[in-house]
Amino acid sequence: MTAPSVPSGKSVPSEKGAEVGRRIGVGLMYGLFRPRVLGAWKVPATGPVIFAVNHSHNIDGPMVMGVAPRPTHFLIKKEAFIGPLDPFLLGIGQLKVDRSVADRGAITQALDVLSAGGVLGIFPEGTRGEGDFASLRAGLAYFAVRSGAAVVPVAVLGSSERQGRLIKGLPPLRSRIDVVFGDPFEAGDGSGRRTRKALDEATERIQKQLTAHLENARRLTGR
């Protein structure tokens, strides 16, 4: 299967822009909170990587962007690209995705990131929820199997804490937020198959790995 063509107006995400975003994230996240990062050394230094991040709060993406050892291009719902945030998020290499359709442009951009050896950030649960990886969509499996990229599970713990909030919608200022990077793994079975059955099997394989990582991260952090 060939990659879909990029519609006009969709450009290849800038890795330099993502690095700028990472530096902005470092300042913001460490300025507002007290991130504790575990396992960052496990992230492959080069080559295509997919961060599979649990999602319980809007701060999870910026937090991972700020503490990750490599610049990251997140797939972000188009609803977040409002007003001045639209050119800003695009400028720092983030990918706008329309979740109501099979967004061919966003799919192509994501594959471009991986084919260039970059890092793609995905919330495999599809939307903000309990952050427990209980229900995964097939998108992560598709990108992992199609690109052959290593999947690195990432657990963000403490971002949904409500007690002590001074600003509505944000975790308590200067609170500790743990970000735990797991061991990279291959989602496919090595056959290169991209059939529906292969993707379903890959999704099941991914879910087991992510759930195990989250349980281990909770043990490590006491969360």
UniProtKB/TrEMBL annotation:
The keyword Acyltransferase is annotated on this UniProt entry: yes
GO function terms (MF aspect): acyltransferase activity
Gene source species: Streptomyces coacervatus
Protein name, entry field: Lysophospholipid acyltransferase family protein
Alphabetical list of CDD domains matching this protein: LPLAT_AGPAT-like (cd07989)
Database matches in InterPro entries: Plipid/glycerol_acylTrfase
Origin superkingdom: Bacteria
Coiled-coil region(s): none
Domain Phospholipid/glycerol acyltransferase: 49-159
Keywords from the UniProt entry: Acyltransferase, Transferase
